Structures are given as C-alpha cells and as structure tokens.
Amino acid sequence: MGRRSTIALLGLALSAVLVVGCGADSGNGAAVTSLAPPRASTTVVPSVPGAPPRVTILATGGTIAGKANAEPGVGYKAGQASVQDLISAVPGLDKIATLQAESIANIGSQDMNEEIWLTLARRINQLFADNATDGVVITHGTDTIEETSFFLDNVVATDKPVVLVGAVRPANALSADGPANLRAAVSIAAAPAARGRGAMVVLNDTIHSAREVTKTHTSSMQTFASPNTGPAGYVSGDSIRFVTTPQSHTRPRFPVPDGSSLPRVDIVYSHAGMRPDQVDDAVRHGAKGIVLAGVGDGNTAKAVLDALAKANDDRVVVRSTRVGSGEVVRNAEVNDDELGFATSADLNPAKARVLLQLLLTVGITDPVRVQQEMNAR
Ligand code: ASP
C-alpha cells in the first residue's frame, strides 16, 4: 500500500495521505461484495468528466476509530484505528468514489480543540480551492461532532458536501456501526444532490444539518436528532433521500480565523440555587463572551442575571437554554433590550458559543448584530 507520510500541521498528528484507486467497472453507490484491498497511489486525482466522484476522508479519531479493552478498567479507547483500517472495514468503499485519505488527528472528540478545527478548515478549503476533491468526509467522535460540524459549516468555502461521521460502537465491537456509517458518509459526499447543504452529520442512516444536529442519548445508535426541524434526509442502501431544501446563505459565512485559537467564550450552566460564581470566574479568566445555558427560555437566578448584566459592559452575553429544543425568545421573561443581551435563537449553548467565537473574530460585538447572526439560517 503506497503511502506518503508527513507531520501534520501544527504538530498535531502524523499525517498519512493515500489515494485509493477506483475500479473501471465501478458505479456510484453500486452494491459491492469484493473484499480486495484498495489500490493506492500518491498522485492527486484530477477531475475528469464522467469519472467517478472523488472523496477525501479526513480522520480525527473518535469511537469510530476506537478499540475495546485498550486499557485495563476502561471499556474501550477512542482514536486507535488508522484511517486505512476504517476504509478497509468497508468492502467496496472504493467502488463508490475514488478515495483520498489523511489523518488529521486521532483523538477522542472530548479532546477536540480549536487548533484542530482550524487545521481541518484550512485543509478542506485548500482541497476545494485546488479542485482536488468533490466531497469531504470527516471521521469524528460523537461527543463534539455537533460543534465541529457547525464550526466547519460556517467557515468552509464550498457548496460541495462536507459530511461528518462517527460511530457509537468501537471499531472492533460486535455489530460495530462505523463501517455502515462510513459507507453512507462517502455516498453522500459523492452525491451531487448533497450540494448546497453545508456541513452534515450522518449516523444510523440519518442525515442531519450541522446547525440542527445534537447528541441526545449517551449510548443509543439513534442518538442524533435535529430537535427543531427533524433530519435533513435518510440513507437506505444506495438511496439518499433529502427531505429538507438546501440552505440559502452563501458560503463561507466567516473567513477561517488566523492563528491557532479563537476568542475565549465560556458557557455558564444554570441550575436551581445558582450563585453568580461561574460568571465571575469567566470574567476573571478573560472570557470575551459568555453564553448562558439557562433554564427554560434561557433564564437564570436574579443574582446571576445581575452578574451577567455587569459582565455585559465589556463583553458579549448570549442567552441560550439547557432545555434541548425550542427557541429562546427575546424579552419574554428577561428584558434583553434593557440589559443588552442577545439570545441564541434555536442554537444550543455549545453552538451559540462557536458562533459567538466567530463573531468576535470579525469584531461583531453589538448585541443587535449578534442577534441578527444568531437568527441567520
Ligand atoms: N468519546 C467518544 C468521542 O467523542 C465518543 C464517540 O465517539 O462516540 O470521541
């Protein structure tokens, strides 16, 4: 297997790049039974009219690359299998598209960070700018896949598909779900019908838009949901069916920020009997923005609201909700106009945090402008 290895950007991980050849008799999405290992070369695959679509798989780790019993006392460890292992576990994946694969990182997504987000965004934008691929698949842990997909959705400069995929069961578990999920993701990334939909997440035959998707169950294979809109579509064998219209806004919404980090935005989580300490702590640690994971309609205890109002003097406060679905309504129980708050609309706290970080990188701090951007779909 030919393979070109380089040290990944910013010293994050060993990067292995390979190009997997596609059989001349292959058809897009054809059912496949061959177990033959994919052929490989190191050449960039040019776009040829009539040729199979080209899909680039960027691996970051997660349970999809996890292995059971890696450590005593721990059920399994995420981020163990290589990207080539993942491809080899899906017979005939190279019949769906001509594949390139790179390892960006191999971590559990609980350790996902801004440095890797920025590396991913730059790599994806470069691949599309060079016309080196027709779609991108990112293998990722499920814990923070909704944040990474939403970040990429906002900064990737393409209408071609960007599909994030994970698994609930480790790669060597009984009935591992990763191979079927990866097959679905490559099919979507190769499909012209998937264009214009921004970043998507696919697991368990269900396609979700990055803005809508959230993890709802700790261990079920049907863990992902889009609570406010329902899924974007479904995969059934070789058939991909979208049930929503493509998003209308142009891409990217934001340039990829320079450097290796984003402005600090903290989330404070509201609960009964809450004191303002979390807000004070965020201020003390230099947060440029605070997202409230409020109770109900993004609400919180009077003392915390007072602390947020004070913090709002020189940072941005966005009210979101810990509820899990629904929209945070302005000026319902909290006087946002008077206190200078924005609400997250239907974005959950983790995604409101990502969007606020991006807004801060382009200097948007006025609550009216922040509100417009939170509302924009
Ligand atoms: N902790 C894992 C991760 O997010 C869980 C998973 O992938 O399902 O990487």
TrEMBL record:
Where on this chain does substrate bind? 109, 142-143
Taking every annotated instance into account, which residue ranges of this chain make up the domain L-asparaginase N-terminal? 54-246
What catalytic reaction does the record list?
L-asparagine + H2O = L-aspartate + NH4(+)
Which keywords are on file for this protein? Hydrolase, Signal
Record's InterPro entries? AsnASE_II (IPR004550), Asp/glu_Ase-like_sf (IPR036152), Asparaginase/glutaminase-like (IPR006034), Asparaginase/glutaminase_AS1 (IPR020827), Asparaginase/glutaminase_AS2 (IPR027475), Asparaginase_C (IPR040919), L-asparaginase_C (IPR027473), L-asparaginase_N (IPR027474)
Out of the domains of life, which is the source?
Bacteria
**Which catalytic residues are annotated?**
63, 63 (o-isoaspartyl threonine intermediate), 142
- What PROSITE patterns does this protein map onto? ASN_GLN_ASE_1, ASN_GLN_ASE_2, ASN_GLN_ASE_3, PROKAR_LIPOPROTEIN
Top enzyme class of this protein?
A: hydrolase
The molecular function GO annotations come to: asparaginase activity
Q: Which residues form the signal peptide?
A: 1-24
What does the entry give for GO biological process? asparagine metabolic process
Q: Which residues cross the membrane?
A: none
**Family assignment from sequence similarity:** Belongs to the asparaginase 1 family.
Supply the name of the protein: asparaginase
What is the native source organism of this protein?
Nocardia ninae NBRC 108245
Taxonomically, what lineage is the organism?
Bacteria, Bacillati, Actinomycetota, Actinomycetes, Mycobacteriales
